[in-house]
Amino acid sequence: MSDVLDRLILSLDRHAPRDGVWSTAFPRLWTIRMGSPGVELIHAMQPAALCLVVQGAKEIQLGDERLSYDASQFMVFTTDLPVAGRVFQASPERPYLCLRLDFDPAEIADLLVQLGPPRAAPSGNAHAVAGHANEISRGLFLSPVTDAMLDATARLLDLLDHPQDQATLGPMAMRELVYRVLRSEQGERLAQVARSDSQTQRIHRAIRWLKQHYAQPLRIEALAREAHMSTSSLHQHFRALTAMSPLQYQKQLRLQEARRLLIAEGLEVARAGHAVGYESPSQFSREYSRLFGAPPSRDAIRRRDGEAVRLPA
């Protein structure tokens, strides 16, 4: 495994030449580099994806839960989640290096037709909603990296250096990597992404609606109708998947977009708050401070003064 890992480190070092998140020749594949530990948590909306670290380590916070992982484990997000992350192990000599492969639900569904039911998640899952035909598990998980997964990842990254092979072999290489996740001990949790009749899919519909209408007042009854669920079932399953209520999820969407408007577009504080649905400037400032640790005026001043502020890519 160490030889393959060394090969992956060299490849990612080439294809993430500086700190940041880098697109690749494959639209769903990203390379990530960070040359020093992060001082503060960076908030972002994380899409459904596989994240594989080959050097360094990172922690992810979802609600009140924190997970740390390095090259011994891979992380999977099965739905769009508002998380905060911080690289805590990195240096200029040994930077944090990671790849992210965004999932295609149609690809997962096609693989399931061929594979049949994947392995069930280990028993004793504290984040599952019991008593239902389709249990909902937390929308992110860690699992041990296998030699087969590293081999598949190495073949995929090798294609970045061979443009003539990318159109033919690229889709197969990405498909194999998803296959390896489905064959892992947590494969059943990823399979829920593609099952149209699952409770997970109903919550995905609610999440899509929230992302499209985050600036509008939230009416739980309307959201439950969108998901084809009762309001009590929506609350129960939404929290199981995301570690938060629909209202808390919407708040995260609003505040992360407001921060982007302040820093990336230079909007005034009052305009940014209003743009994401806040009618009360004091409520906006209070909730912004609670999430980011300082009022929105601080980020507006930092932007105005030209101070570098890291936003998620």
TrEMBL record:
Annotated HTH araC/xylS-type domain residues: 204-302
N-terminal signal peptide: none
Keyword Transcription regulation annotated: yes
Keywords: DNA-binding, Transcription, Transcription regulation
Gene3D superfamilies linked to this entry: Homeodomain-like
Protein name per Swiss-Prot or TrEMBL: AraC family transcriptional regulator
